[in-house]
Structure formats: structure tokens, C-alpha cells
Amino acid sequence: VEKAIAFYTKVADYITNVELKDHEALVLEYETLWKYFINLREVNLRSNRPPKMCKKKYCGLVWKNGGWVMKCKGMATVKRDTPEFVKRVLLCLLDAALTNSVHDPAALKKLVHDQLLRILSRDNAELIPLVGCSKGLSKDPREYTTPTAVSHLARAANGLLGDGHNLGVGKYRPGVRLRYVRMDLDAMWKHGVLRR
């Protein structure tokens, strides 16, 4: 690994020092050594166009402090509005894919199943923060009142208004992150996710 880093650093220095006629200098710098790299593709199901690579949405193993470390950018695993349980399941899958620890699809399915069971077997008080979403308010919550405002954030803001919370004053103002849980209570009781 150290030899590879030294080689790529030399290559970057060499290219940077090459003089190009009638062109600006090209400056390269060694940044990171990747072992594996997963780049997300944007898929539009309503179009026949082929998927295109997403910019700044990737995950992989990078060499850091003498070992391979997972690095993710732009994915649900690092976004603040992603529920914690989704982050945990995705990190579990990415870890299995990047470390080649699981090769069999059935074993991968069991890995995800076990992770979900560990999360869902918690008491309600521990479970709710794991399944909660979080979004930043971009405007005064009282402005989320149009009939087309069917986003989950708009529903959460309107629900708080309906419960008598004064959303335009104090802690509920633009820029504040609103935490909420999307639930189908009937299905949750039926499947034993919530216990009475």
C-alpha cells in the first residue's frame, strides 16, 4: 500500500511539473487510495434512458491511518434526514459488499433480516428515535398549508399545528430540524412491531 501511495504521488508530481505549450498548467495531487469504490447511478423508471452516474454519491474503502476504512458521501448513510434504522441496514449491506464477507444472496438476506430484527425488537421508547425522520424547515411552518403540500414535512408541521403547537414562534421556525415518524399504526399493531 505504501509503495502504491508513493507511486501515485510521483505520478501526480510528474504531471504537475510537465510544461504544456499554449495551455494552463495541470495540477494533480495525490488524495486518497481506494480499495473498492461504489458509485450510485441515477435511474429514472419513467424513462427509457440508460442510468447515469450520480456526482458525489459514492462509498468505498480508503486507506487511512494504516488500515482500510469505509467512506461514504451523498448516500442515505450520511444524510441527516435518513432514519437511523435505514442507515444501520445500509451500512450493514455496504460493509458486507465492500469487505466481501458475504457472497451468498441467502446469507445476505439473512444478514439484513437479523439486523432488522435487532432494531425492531426494542421497546417502543427505543424504537421511535430509530425510525424517526428529520427535515429542516425552509419556511414558516404556517406556510405549509396549501392542498398540494402533501410532503411528510408538511404533514408533520400541520399535525403539530393541529395539536395546538405555536409553530411560528420559539423552537419551530425556518432552519430548525423537525423530527417526525411516518407510521401505519394498524399494520404495526397487526405485525407486532408496536406492543400495547
Short description:
The chain has 196 residues and is α+β, with helices and mostly antiparallel strands.
Q: What is the strand arrangement across the widest sheet?
A: 1-2-3
**Count of alpha and pi helical runs:** 6
* Span between termini: 55 Å
Broad shape? extended
What is the chain-wise order of helices and strands? HEEEHHHEHEH
Average predicted confidence as pLDDT: 77
Q: Which structural class fits the helix and strand makeup?
A: alpha+beta
Percent in strands: 15-25%
Uncertain ranges: none
- Overall strand count: 5
Which percent bin holds the helix content? 25-40%
What is the C-alpha radius of gyration, as a whole number of Å?
23 Å
**Biggest beta-sheet profile:** 3 strands, antiparallel
Kindly describe this structure:
The chain has 196 residues and is an alpha+beta fold. The chain contains six helices and five strands. The strands form two sheets. The protein has a three-stranded antiparallel sheet with strand order 1-2-3, covered by helices on one side. A two-stranded antiparallel ribbon has the order 4-5. A hairpin with a 2-residue loop joins strand 2 and strand 3 (67-73). Helix 2 (84-99) packs antiparallel against helix 3. The longest helix has 16 residues, at 2-17. The radius of gyration is 23 Å and the shape is extended. The chain starts with a helix and ends in a 6-residue tail after the last helix.
